[in-house]
Recover the amino acids of this structure.
């Protein structure tokens, strides 16, 4: 005969809600198994728990598959076994669904009371009349996509699941006249129904994952969703979590090991912006977003923070830092906005100096720009760019008199000041100039190769001549013959600054 698995429901709470059929099956079974011993009705039941599988598996799907294999093997050995699951075997039990289609065993189900029966009673809701749909908290983004409610979200067993549910909804939650983030946007947390510590708590959508410590006996009732599920964002987040669970490389990563990749993706995004190609920028922003999501997954695994915390944190910070938008403070110019921002930040962080918090590991030009901008926010600055030019001349003279690293640094610092006053980013300007030089030098290499010339064997006049041709070609192509990039704009083919030679400016 085909081995048999008898599945019994433990009900939604304590042993007082067990059916007599399940009680009899427990007494008669040659071998009994519990999907989890973390259930009030499981106390005192002599059975093998599958809790250890949850701790060792890489994903929940692996857990379910392993449980089925263990039950099939045990049924083959004993003829039949008893498998006890929380609530009802017919409600939200993936392992039971897998057993039903497994041809190696037959299955007999002993119905049990579902948590749904208690939920409808506590909510005062008729699920048929109201059209309530039950969805799995771990698959909320997939199962509730496009839904408007009402929804009963089951198996919200961790704060991560509650956070994912909250994050998956556009505009912050449910309809109700609120702003999507506070009062008016409300849901109901159902926790430990039927037990002495039962809680039925109506909370704001923003407090969904911050009200209580959830477990496998926690659900959420969502009356009406204010907007469809943000499926693309959560679908991507689920992908990152899946990679973390199943990919050997992703499993090994830490915040520290990802630092290099975060820096690389940031620079590639900057390069995409400079390219002016929207498709390229879209792609690089995706790569950068992957880094943000990856770090958020790592934070969630360590119980430190979630993606929702990251989003909420930056949201709240931006609201506080823009009192001229969300408060009563007035700021009519960009300079006033920056001044307010720096003052608020100083007070917020409890810093004695506004220079605190500037990362010293920033690229040097950007570092100088930030330091100058901080000082300028309280008026410590040159009135106009015309006042900065003499400082550049002064620092250049000092470098010529004392060619030291310190004097070179002073000159560069003064040049950054000029860039800031002109509204340019010195880092971007230098990157652009370097990219232009690189492109033109590659053209010099191409010309030399076409003519059978070896650059390393040419004299300076020959190199200067090739450079002159490249600049003239660029000027002709752009329709300008006398701009800074043209040959005629300089006394030298290489030097738009009047300096001849391959090391001159492009």
């Amino acid at each position: 005969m085909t081995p048999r698995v008898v599945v019994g429901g433990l009900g939604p709470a304590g042993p007082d809600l067990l059916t007599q059929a399940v009680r009899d099956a427990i007494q008669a079974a040659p071998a009994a198994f519990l999907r989890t011993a973390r259930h009030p009705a499981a106390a005192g039941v002599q059975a093998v728990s599958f809790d250890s599988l949850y701790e060792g598996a890489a994903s929940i799907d692996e857990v379910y598959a392993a449980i089925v294999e263990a039950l099939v093997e045990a049924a083959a050995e004993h003829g039949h076994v008893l498998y006890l699951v929380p609530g009802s075997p017919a409600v939200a039990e993936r392992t039971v669904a897998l057993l039903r289609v497994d041809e190696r065993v037959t299955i007999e189900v002993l119905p049990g009371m579902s948590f749904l029966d208690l939920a409808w009673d506590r909510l005062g809701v008729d699920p048929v009349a109201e059209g309530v749909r039950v969805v799995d908290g771990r698959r909320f983004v997939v199962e509730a996509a496009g839904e408007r409610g009402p929804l009963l979200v089951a198996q919200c067993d961790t704060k991560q699941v509650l956070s994912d549910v909250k994050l998956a909804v556009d505009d912050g939650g449910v309809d109700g006249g609120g702003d999507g983030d506070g009062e008016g946007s409300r849901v109901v947390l159902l926790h430990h129904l039927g037990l002495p510590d039962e809680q039925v708590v109506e909370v704001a959508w923003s407090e969904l994952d911050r009200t209580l410590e959830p477990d496998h006996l926690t659900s959420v009732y969502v009356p009406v969703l204010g907007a469809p599920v943000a499926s693309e964002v959560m679908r991507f987040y689920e992908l990152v979590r899946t990679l973390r669970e199943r990919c050997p490389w992703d499993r090994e990563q830490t915040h520290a090991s990802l630092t290099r990749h975060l820096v690389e993706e940031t620079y590639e995004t900057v390069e995409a912006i400079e390219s002016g190609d929207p498709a390229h920028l879209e792609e690089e922003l995706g790569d950068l977003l992957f880094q943000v999501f990856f770090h958020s997954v790592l934070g969630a695994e360590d119980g430190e923070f979630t993606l929702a915390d990251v989003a909420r944190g930056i949201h709240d910070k931006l609201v506080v830092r823009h009192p001229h938008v969300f408060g009563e403070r007035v700021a009519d110019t960009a300079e006033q906005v920056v001044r307010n921002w720096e003052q608020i930040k100083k007070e917020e962080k409890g810093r004695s100096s506004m220079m605190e918090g500037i990362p010293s590991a920033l690229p040097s030009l950007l570092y100088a720009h930030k330091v100058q901008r901080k000082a300028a926010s309280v008026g410590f600055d040159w009135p106009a760019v015309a006042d900065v030019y003499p400082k550049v001349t002064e620092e250049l003279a000092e470098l010529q008199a004392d060619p030291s690293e310190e004097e070179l640094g002073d000159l560069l610092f003064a040049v950054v000041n000029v860039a800031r006053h002109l509204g340019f980013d010195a880092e971007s300007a230098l990157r652009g100039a370097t990219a232009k030089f690189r492109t033109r030098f590659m053209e010099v290499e191409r010309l030399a190769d076409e003519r059978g010339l070896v650059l390393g064997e040419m004299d300076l006049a020959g190199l200067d001549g090739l450079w002159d041709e490249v600049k003239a070609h660029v000027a002709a192509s752009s329709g300008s013959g006398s701009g800074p990039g043209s040959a005629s704009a300089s006394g030298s083919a290489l030097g738009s600054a009047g300096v001849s030679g391959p090391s001159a400016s492009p």
In short: The chain has five domains: 4-113, 118-229, 233-305, 358-421, 426-489. Confidence is low (pLDDT under 50) at residues 176-184, 480-506.
